[in-house]
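Input record (one chain):
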Amino acid sequence: MGNERGIAVIGSGYVGTVMAACLADLGHEVIGVEIDPAKLASLNSGVAPFFEAGLEERLAAGIESGRLVFTDDYQSAMDRSEIVFLCVDTPPGTNGHPDMSSVAGAARSIGAALHEPHIIVTKSTVPVGSGNWLEATIEAELPLGVDRDVLCVVSNPEFLREGSAVSDFLHPERIVVGGDCEDAIEKVAHVYDRVLSQDFDGGDPMAKPVLVKTGRATAETIKYAANAFLATKISFINEIANICEWIDADVAEVARAVGLDSRIGPKFLSAGVGWGGSCFGKDTAALASMAREQGIEPLILDAVRRVNTNQRHVVVRKLQDHLRPLRGARIGLLGLAFKPGTDDTRDAPVITIARSLMEKGAILRASDPLVNSLPEVPDLRVFADPYDAVCDSDAFVLLTEWPEFLEMDFDKIADCMRGKVVIDARNAFDPEAVIGAGLVYEGIGRHARH
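The corresponding structure, as predicted from the sequence alone:
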Protein backbone atom coordinates (compact mmCIF):
# COMPACT_ATOMS: atom_id res chain seq x y z
CA MET A 1 0.00 0.00 0.00
CA GLY A 2 1.38 3.41 -0.93
CA ASN A 3 1.84 6.48 1.23
CA GLU A 4 -1.38 8.19 0.05
CA ARG A 5 -4.29 8.18 2.45
CA GLY A 6 -6.86 5.61 1.44
CA ILE A 7 -9.97 4.05 2.92
CA ALA A 8 -10.35 2.28 6.27
CA VAL A 9 -13.12 -0.25 6.87
CA ILE A 10 -13.87 -0.99 10.52
CA GLY A 11 -15.38 -4.43 11.14
CA SER A 12 -15.23 -7.59 9.07
CA GLY A 13 -18.75 -8.97 9.13
CA TYR A 14 -20.88 -9.41 6.02
CA VAL A 15 -20.95 -5.71 5.19
CA GLY A 16 -17.37 -4.78 6.09
CA THR A 17 -15.66 -7.72 4.39
CA VAL A 18 -17.69 -7.36 1.21
CA MET A 19 -17.08 -3.62 1.12
CA ALA A 20 -13.34 -3.90 1.73
CA ALA A 21 -12.87 -6.61 -0.91
CA CYS A 22 -15.00 -4.85 -3.53
CA LEU A 23 -13.41 -1.42 -3.00
CA ALA A 24 -9.96 -2.96 -3.40
CA ASP A 25 -11.21 -4.77 -6.51
CA LEU A 26 -12.25 -1.38 -7.91
CA GLY A 27 -8.74 0.02 -7.36
CA HIS A 28 -8.94 1.68 -3.94
CA GLU A 29 -6.27 1.35 -1.27
CA VAL A 30 -8.11 -0.25 1.65
CA ILE A 31 -7.09 -1.11 5.20
CA GLY A 32 -9.54 -3.21 7.18
CA VAL A 33 -9.64 -3.21 10.96
CA GLU A 34 -10.49 -6.45 12.76
CA ILE A 35 -9.74 -7.00 16.46
CA ASP A 36 -10.51 -10.74 16.57
CA PRO A 37 -7.11 -12.50 16.14
CA ALA A 38 -8.45 -15.63 14.43
CA LYS A 39 -10.60 -13.67 12.00
CA LEU A 40 -7.73 -11.25 11.33
CA ALA A 41 -5.37 -14.10 10.43
CA SER A 42 -7.99 -15.64 8.17
CA LEU A 43 -8.63 -12.38 6.34
CA ASN A 44 -4.95 -11.64 5.77
CA SER A 45 -4.58 -15.09 4.24
CA GLY A 46 -7.40 -14.29 1.82
CA VAL A 47 -9.98 -16.55 3.47
CA ALA A 48 -13.42 -15.09 4.22
CA PRO A 49 -14.87 -15.86 7.68
CA PHE A 50 -18.24 -16.76 6.13
CA PHE A 51 -19.64 -17.87 2.79
CA GLU A 52 -20.69 -15.26 0.26
CA ALA A 53 -20.70 -15.94 -3.47
CA GLY A 54 -17.88 -14.12 -5.31
CA LEU A 55 -16.31 -12.74 -2.13
CA GLU A 56 -13.34 -14.98 -1.45
CA GLU A 57 -11.74 -14.58 -4.88
CA ARG A 58 -11.95 -10.79 -4.59
CA LEU A 59 -10.62 -10.92 -1.05
CA ALA A 60 -7.65 -13.04 -2.10
CA ALA A 61 -6.98 -10.87 -5.15
CA GLY A 62 -7.00 -7.71 -3.03
CA ILE A 63 -4.54 -9.21 -0.56
CA GLU A 64 -2.26 -10.42 -3.35
CA SER A 65 -2.31 -7.04 -5.12
CA GLY A 66 -1.38 -5.18 -1.94
CA ARG A 67 -4.41 -2.90 -2.26
CA LEU A 68 -6.08 -4.62 0.70
CA VAL A 69 -4.60 -5.34 4.13
CA PHE A 70 -6.17 -6.05 7.51
CA THR A 71 -4.90 -4.95 10.90
CA ASP A 72 -5.96 -4.70 14.54
CA ASP A 73 -4.11 -1.37 14.90
CA TYR A 74 -6.50 1.58 14.80
CA GLN A 75 -3.63 4.06 14.78
CA SER A 76 -2.17 2.56 11.62
CA ALA A 77 -5.60 2.53 10.00
CA MET A 78 -6.29 6.17 10.82
CA ASP A 79 -2.84 7.31 9.72
CA ARG A 80 -3.30 5.63 6.34
CA SER A 81 -6.86 6.73 5.60
CA GLU A 82 -9.00 9.79 5.09
CA ILE A 83 -12.40 8.11 4.86
CA VAL A 84 -13.43 5.53 7.47
CA PHE A 85 -16.40 3.23 6.89
CA LEU A 86 -17.86 1.98 10.17
CA CYS A 87 -19.26 -1.51 9.55
CA VAL A 88 -19.41 -3.10 13.00
CA ASP A 89 -22.34 -5.24 14.11
CA THR A 90 -25.44 -3.78 15.79
CA PRO A 91 -27.27 -6.88 17.07
CA PRO A 92 -30.66 -6.75 18.78
CA GLY A 93 -30.50 -5.20 22.24
CA THR A 94 -33.16 -4.54 24.85
CA ASN A 95 -36.66 -3.14 24.23
CA GLY A 96 -36.19 -3.27 20.48
CA HIS A 97 -33.13 -1.03 20.48
CA PRO A 98 -29.99 -2.26 18.68
CA ASP A 99 -26.96 -3.01 20.82
CA MET A 100 -24.57 -0.13 20.11
CA SER A 101 -21.70 -1.36 22.28
CA SER A 102 -19.53 -2.39 19.31
CA VAL A 103 -20.16 0.95 17.60
CA ALA A 104 -19.26 2.79 20.80
CA GLY A 105 -16.06 0.76 21.21
CA ALA A 106 -15.01 1.40 17.62
CA ALA A 107 -15.85 5.11 17.95
CA ARG A 108 -13.67 5.47 21.03
CA SER A 109 -10.78 3.70 19.30
CA ILE A 110 -11.18 5.93 16.24
CA GLY A 111 -11.24 9.08 18.36
CA ALA A 112 -8.10 8.15 20.27
CA ALA A 113 -6.21 7.64 16.99
CA LEU A 114 -7.32 10.78 15.10
CA HIS A 115 -4.84 13.57 14.36
CA GLU A 116 -5.73 14.56 10.80
CA PRO A 117 -9.11 15.37 9.22
CA HIS A 118 -11.28 12.29 8.67
CA ILE A 119 -14.72 11.52 7.34
CA ILE A 120 -16.45 8.83 9.40
CA VAL A 121 -19.09 7.00 7.36
CA THR A 122 -21.71 4.90 9.13
CA LYS A 123 -22.57 1.74 7.20
CA SER A 124 -23.80 -0.02 10.34
CA THR A 125 -27.57 0.22 10.76
CA VAL A 126 -27.94 2.64 13.66
CA PRO A 127 -30.94 4.45 15.20
CA VAL A 128 -31.95 7.73 13.62
CA GLY A 129 -29.95 10.49 15.24
CA SER A 130 -26.93 8.30 15.93
CA GLY A 131 -24.71 10.55 13.82
CA ASN A 132 -24.80 13.22 16.52
CA TRP A 133 -24.08 10.64 19.23
CA LEU A 134 -21.24 9.18 17.18
CA GLU A 135 -19.63 12.59 16.73
CA ALA A 136 -19.79 13.27 20.46
CA THR A 137 -18.39 9.83 21.33
CA ILE A 138 -15.43 10.23 18.98
CA GLU A 139 -14.76 13.82 20.04
CA ALA A 140 -14.64 12.80 23.70
CA GLU A 141 -11.62 10.58 22.91
CA LEU A 142 -9.65 13.01 20.73
CA PRO A 143 -6.08 13.52 21.99
CA LEU A 144 -5.36 16.82 23.72
CA GLY A 145 -4.69 19.62 21.27
CA VAL A 146 -6.51 17.99 18.35
CA ASP A 147 -9.16 20.30 16.90
CA ARG A 148 -12.71 18.94 16.70
CA ASP A 149 -12.87 20.11 13.11
CA VAL A 150 -10.90 16.99 12.13
CA LEU A 151 -14.16 15.07 12.22
CA CYS A 152 -17.20 14.86 9.95
CA VAL A 153 -19.80 12.07 10.18
CA VAL A 154 -21.73 10.95 7.09
CA SER A 155 -24.44 8.28 6.77
CA ASN A 156 -24.15 5.82 3.88
CA PRO A 157 -26.61 2.97 4.59
CA GLU A 158 -26.03 -0.45 3.06
CA PHE A 159 -28.63 -2.39 1.09
CA LEU A 160 -26.78 -5.68 0.66
CA ARG A 161 -28.59 -9.01 0.63
CA GLU A 162 -26.81 -12.03 2.02
CA GLY A 163 -26.20 -14.49 -0.77
CA SER A 164 -25.86 -11.74 -3.38
CA ALA A 165 -23.94 -9.09 -1.43
CA VAL A 166 -21.05 -8.76 -3.90
CA SER A 167 -23.42 -8.27 -6.82
CA ASP A 168 -25.54 -5.87 -4.78
CA PHE A 169 -22.47 -3.77 -3.93
CA LEU A 170 -21.27 -3.59 -7.53
CA HIS A 171 -24.72 -3.20 -9.12
CA PRO A 172 -26.89 -1.27 -6.64
CA GLU A 173 -30.13 0.44 -7.58
CA ARG A 174 -29.24 3.46 -5.47
CA ILE A 175 -26.44 4.83 -3.31
CA VAL A 176 -27.55 7.04 -0.43
CA VAL A 177 -25.17 9.55 1.16
CA GLY A 178 -26.38 11.86 3.91
CA GLY A 179 -24.61 14.52 5.93
CA ASP A 180 -24.33 18.14 6.93
CA CYS A 181 -21.05 18.88 5.13
CA GLU A 182 -21.25 19.12 1.34
CA ASP A 183 -17.53 18.51 0.87
CA ALA A 184 -17.69 15.29 2.91
CA ILE A 185 -20.74 14.10 0.96
CA GLU A 186 -18.91 14.67 -2.31
CA LYS A 187 -15.82 12.78 -1.13
CA VAL A 188 -17.87 9.79 -0.01
CA ALA A 189 -19.79 9.81 -3.30
CA HIS A 190 -16.46 9.93 -5.13
CA VAL A 191 -15.53 6.59 -3.55
CA TYR A 192 -18.35 5.07 -5.62
CA ASP A 193 -17.43 6.74 -8.93
CA ARG A 194 -16.80 3.48 -10.77
CA VAL A 195 -19.95 1.90 -9.34
CA LEU A 196 -22.01 4.95 -10.31
CA SER A 197 -20.64 4.89 -13.86
CA GLN A 198 -20.52 1.05 -13.97
CA ASP A 199 -17.01 1.49 -15.38
CA PHE A 200 -15.46 -1.83 -14.37
CA ASP A 201 -15.16 -5.36 -15.72
CA GLY A 202 -18.69 -6.77 -15.53
CA GLY A 203 -20.29 -3.36 -15.10
CA ASP A 204 -23.55 -2.49 -16.86
CA PRO A 205 -23.51 1.11 -18.21
CA MET A 206 -27.21 0.70 -19.09
CA ALA A 207 -28.12 0.19 -15.43
CA LYS A 208 -26.35 2.97 -13.58
CA PRO A 209 -27.44 3.42 -9.96
CA VAL A 210 -29.07 6.61 -8.68
CA LEU A 211 -27.04 8.74 -6.28
CA VAL A 212 -29.21 10.17 -3.49
CA LYS A 213 -27.68 13.05 -1.53
CA THR A 214 -29.61 14.05 1.56
CA GLY A 215 -29.41 14.93 5.24
CA ARG A 216 -27.90 12.56 7.76
CA ALA A 217 -31.11 11.76 9.65
CA THR A 218 -32.95 11.19 6.38
CA ALA A 219 -30.28 8.77 5.18
CA GLU A 220 -30.50 6.85 8.45
CA THR A 221 -34.28 6.67 8.12
CA ILE A 222 -34.15 5.44 4.51
CA LYS A 223 -32.44 2.22 5.60
CA TYR A 224 -35.06 1.43 8.24
CA ALA A 225 -37.96 2.37 5.97
CA ALA A 226 -36.69 0.16 3.13
CA ASN A 227 -36.31 -2.94 5.30
CA ALA A 228 -39.63 -2.32 7.05
CA PHE A 229 -41.45 -2.10 3.73
CA LEU A 230 -39.90 -5.32 2.41
CA ALA A 231 -40.77 -7.12 5.63
CA THR A 232 -44.31 -5.77 5.30
CA LYS A 233 -44.70 -7.19 1.78
CA ILE A 234 -43.65 -10.63 3.00
CA SER A 235 -45.98 -10.61 6.00
CA PHE A 236 -48.82 -9.29 3.84
CA ILE A 237 -48.61 -12.11 1.30
CA ASN A 238 -48.32 -14.67 4.11
CA GLU A 239 -51.52 -13.35 5.66
CA ILE A 240 -53.18 -13.57 2.25
CA ALA A 241 -51.85 -17.14 1.95
CA ASN A 242 -53.53 -18.13 5.20
CA ILE A 243 -56.80 -16.66 3.94
CA CYS A 244 -56.39 -18.51 0.62
CA GLU A 245 -56.31 -21.85 2.39
CA TRP A 246 -59.78 -21.22 3.81
CA ILE A 247 -61.43 -20.02 0.62
CA ASP A 248 -59.90 -22.52 -1.82
CA ALA A 249 -57.70 -19.97 -3.59
CA ASP A 250 -54.06 -20.42 -4.70
CA VAL A 251 -51.78 -17.74 -3.26
CA ALA A 252 -49.14 -18.33 -5.96
CA GLU A 253 -51.62 -17.29 -8.65
CA VAL A 254 -52.92 -14.44 -6.49
CA ALA A 255 -49.38 -13.11 -5.96
CA ARG A 256 -48.52 -13.39 -9.65
CA ALA A 257 -51.55 -11.38 -10.71
CA VAL A 258 -51.13 -8.80 -7.95
CA GLY A 259 -47.43 -8.43 -8.77
CA LEU A 260 -48.23 -7.56 -12.39
CA ASP A 261 -49.47 -4.22 -11.08
CA SER A 262 -46.51 -1.87 -11.65
CA ARG A 263 -47.40 -0.01 -8.47
CA ILE A 264 -46.81 -3.20 -6.46
CA GLY A 265 -44.34 -5.39 -8.37
CA PRO A 266 -43.69 -9.14 -7.98
CA LYS A 267 -40.69 -9.10 -5.64
CA PHE A 268 -41.14 -10.15 -2.01
CA LEU A 269 -44.58 -11.56 -2.75
CA SER A 270 -43.60 -15.20 -2.28
CA ALA A 271 -45.67 -16.80 0.46
CA GLY A 272 -43.86 -19.14 2.79
CA VAL A 273 -42.57 -19.51 6.30
CA GLY A 274 -41.68 -15.85 6.79
CA TRP A 275 -38.50 -13.81 6.89
CA GLY A 276 -35.46 -14.48 9.01
CA GLY A 277 -31.87 -13.29 9.11
CA SER A 278 -30.18 -10.48 10.97
CA CYS A 279 -31.87 -7.45 9.42
CA PHE A 280 -35.66 -7.46 9.12
CA GLY A 281 -36.45 -8.49 12.68
CA LYS A 282 -33.87 -6.18 14.22
CA ASP A 283 -34.70 -3.19 12.04
CA THR A 284 -38.48 -3.41 12.35
CA ALA A 285 -38.12 -3.73 16.13
CA ALA A 286 -35.79 -0.73 16.26
CA LEU A 287 -38.05 1.42 14.10
CA ALA A 288 -41.07 0.49 16.21
CA SER A 289 -39.15 1.30 19.38
CA MET A 290 -38.09 4.69 18.00
CA ALA A 291 -41.72 5.44 17.14
CA ARG A 292 -42.91 4.60 20.65
CA GLU A 293 -40.30 6.88 22.15
CA GLN A 294 -41.91 9.73 20.22
CA GLY A 295 -45.42 8.76 21.29
CA ILE A 296 -46.29 7.16 17.93
CA GLU A 297 -48.00 3.76 18.00
CA PRO A 298 -46.36 1.63 15.25
CA LEU A 299 -49.50 -0.35 14.37
CA ILE A 300 -48.30 -1.61 11.00
CA LEU A 301 -44.82 -2.55 12.22
CA ASP A 302 -46.23 -4.47 15.19
CA ALA A 303 -48.62 -6.36 12.93
CA VAL A 304 -45.85 -7.21 10.47
CA ARG A 305 -43.77 -8.73 13.25
CA ARG A 306 -46.69 -10.71 14.71
CA VAL A 307 -47.65 -12.17 11.35
CA ASN A 308 -44.06 -13.28 10.76
CA THR A 309 -43.82 -14.95 14.17
CA ASN A 310 -47.14 -16.74 13.68
CA GLN A 311 -46.15 -17.94 10.21
CA ARG A 312 -43.49 -20.24 11.63
CA HIS A 313 -46.14 -22.06 13.63
CA VAL A 314 -48.21 -22.67 10.48
CA VAL A 315 -45.72 -25.39 9.50
CA VAL A 316 -46.05 -27.09 12.89
CA ARG A 317 -49.84 -27.02 12.66
CA LYS A 318 -49.76 -28.56 9.19
CA LEU A 319 -47.57 -31.39 10.46
CA GLN A 320 -49.91 -31.91 13.40
CA ASP A 321 -52.88 -32.20 11.03
CA HIS A 322 -51.14 -34.97 9.09
CA LEU A 323 -49.20 -36.78 11.82
CA ARG A 324 -51.29 -36.80 14.98
CA PRO A 325 -49.71 -37.29 17.42
CA LEU A 326 -46.30 -35.77 16.66
CA ARG A 327 -44.65 -37.73 19.46
CA GLY A 328 -42.47 -40.33 17.79
CA ALA A 329 -43.07 -38.98 14.29
CA ARG A 330 -39.99 -38.82 12.10
CA ILE A 331 -39.64 -35.53 10.27
CA GLY A 332 -36.97 -34.31 7.86
CA LEU A 333 -36.07 -30.62 7.63
CA LEU A 334 -34.46 -29.40 4.43
CA GLY A 335 -32.70 -26.10 5.01
CA LEU A 336 -31.08 -24.49 8.05
CA ALA A 337 -29.80 -21.20 6.62
CA PHE A 338 -32.46 -18.48 6.63
CA LYS A 339 -32.16 -18.16 2.83
CA PRO A 340 -30.25 -19.83 -0.03
CA GLY A 341 -26.74 -18.66 -0.84
CA THR A 342 -25.60 -18.10 2.74
CA ASP A 343 -24.52 -20.07 5.79
CA ASP A 344 -26.21 -17.59 8.13
CA THR A 345 -28.75 -19.11 10.54
CA ARG A 346 -29.49 -16.00 12.59
CA ASP A 347 -33.24 -15.92 13.31
CA ALA A 348 -33.76 -18.69 10.76
CA PRO A 349 -37.35 -20.06 10.80
CA VAL A 350 -35.99 -23.58 11.33
CA ILE A 351 -34.95 -22.67 14.89
CA THR A 352 -38.51 -21.98 16.06
CA ILE A 353 -39.94 -24.90 14.08
CA ALA A 354 -37.36 -27.47 15.23
CA ARG A 355 -37.70 -26.48 18.87
CA SER A 356 -41.48 -26.70 18.72
CA LEU A 357 -41.44 -30.10 17.02
CA MET A 358 -38.90 -31.48 19.49
CA GLU A 359 -40.98 -30.24 22.42
CA LYS A 360 -43.87 -32.24 20.98
CA GLY A 361 -41.74 -35.39 20.81
CA ALA A 362 -40.93 -35.49 17.10
CA ILE A 363 -37.68 -37.09 15.92
CA LEU A 364 -35.86 -34.76 13.54
CA ARG A 365 -33.20 -34.99 10.89
CA ALA A 366 -32.00 -32.04 8.84
CA SER A 367 -29.79 -31.15 5.88
CA ASP A 368 -28.25 -27.97 4.47
CA PRO A 369 -25.55 -27.48 1.79
CA LEU A 370 -23.51 -25.06 3.92
CA VAL A 371 -24.63 -25.49 7.54
CA ASN A 372 -23.63 -28.61 9.47
CA SER A 373 -24.99 -27.72 12.90
CA LEU A 374 -27.49 -25.47 14.59
CA PRO A 375 -26.20 -24.15 17.95
CA GLU A 376 -29.68 -23.06 19.02
CA VAL A 377 -30.90 -26.65 18.59
CA PRO A 378 -27.83 -28.70 19.59
CA ASP A 379 -29.62 -32.07 19.53
CA LEU A 380 -30.66 -31.68 15.90
CA ARG A 381 -28.89 -34.22 13.68
CA VAL A 382 -27.65 -32.65 10.45
CA PHE A 383 -26.65 -34.61 7.34
CA ALA A 384 -24.74 -33.49 4.27
CA ASP A 385 -26.90 -35.64 1.98
CA PRO A 386 -30.52 -34.43 1.91
CA TYR A 387 -31.74 -37.96 1.18
CA ASP A 388 -30.37 -39.01 4.58
CA ALA A 389 -32.63 -36.39 6.17
CA VAL A 390 -35.83 -37.49 4.42
CA CYS A 391 -35.42 -41.29 4.21
CA ASP A 392 -37.44 -43.24 6.80
CA SER A 393 -39.37 -40.05 7.63
CA ASP A 394 -43.12 -39.73 8.00
CA ALA A 395 -42.93 -36.23 6.52
CA PHE A 396 -40.38 -33.68 5.45
CA VAL A 397 -40.44 -29.90 5.21
CA LEU A 398 -38.69 -27.65 2.69
CA LEU A 399 -37.57 -24.62 4.72
CA THR A 400 -34.84 -23.17 2.47
CA GLU A 401 -35.20 -23.31 -1.30
CA TRP A 402 -31.64 -24.39 -2.11
CA PRO A 403 -31.26 -25.50 -5.77
CA GLU A 404 -29.90 -28.83 -4.53
CA PHE A 405 -33.23 -29.54 -2.83
CA LEU A 406 -35.34 -28.48 -5.80
CA GLU A 407 -33.50 -30.97 -8.01
CA MET A 408 -34.17 -34.00 -5.77
CA ASP A 409 -35.77 -37.12 -7.25
CA PHE A 410 -39.26 -37.49 -5.78
CA ASP A 411 -39.57 -41.10 -6.93
CA LYS A 412 -36.42 -41.90 -4.97
CA ILE A 413 -37.80 -39.98 -1.99
CA ALA A 414 -41.13 -41.83 -2.13
CA ASP A 415 -39.34 -45.18 -2.17
CA CYS A 416 -37.31 -44.42 0.97
CA MET A 417 -39.85 -42.49 3.06
CA ARG A 418 -41.91 -44.20 5.74
CA GLY A 419 -44.81 -41.79 5.19
CA LYS A 420 -45.93 -39.59 2.29
CA VAL A 421 -46.28 -36.01 3.53
CA VAL A 422 -44.33 -33.18 1.90
CA ILE A 423 -44.71 -29.69 3.41
CA ASP A 424 -43.41 -27.15 0.92
CA ALA A 425 -42.94 -24.16 3.22
CA ARG A 426 -41.46 -22.07 0.40
CA ASN A 427 -43.90 -23.01 -2.40
CA ALA A 428 -40.82 -23.94 -4.43
CA PHE A 429 -41.52 -27.55 -5.45
CA ASP A 430 -43.56 -28.51 -8.50
CA PRO A 431 -46.75 -29.90 -6.89
CA GLU A 432 -47.44 -32.19 -9.84
CA ALA A 433 -43.98 -33.75 -9.58
CA VAL A 434 -44.54 -34.46 -5.88
CA ILE A 435 -48.01 -35.89 -6.46
CA GLY A 436 -46.81 -37.92 -9.45
CA ALA A 437 -44.41 -39.77 -7.15
CA GLY A 438 -47.33 -40.84 -4.94
CA LEU A 439 -46.66 -38.29 -2.20
CA VAL A 440 -49.00 -35.82 -0.49
CA TYR A 441 -48.14 -32.21 -1.33
CA GLU A 442 -49.01 -29.26 0.88
CA GLY A 443 -47.69 -25.76 0.36
CA ILE A 444 -48.44 -22.43 2.01
CA GLY A 445 -51.68 -20.88 0.82
CA ARG A 446 -52.55 -24.00 -1.12
CA HIS A 447 -54.72 -26.96 -0.14
CA ALA A 448 -53.15 -30.36 0.38
CA ARG A 449 -52.90 -32.33 -2.85
CA HIS A 450 -52.87 -36.10 -3.09
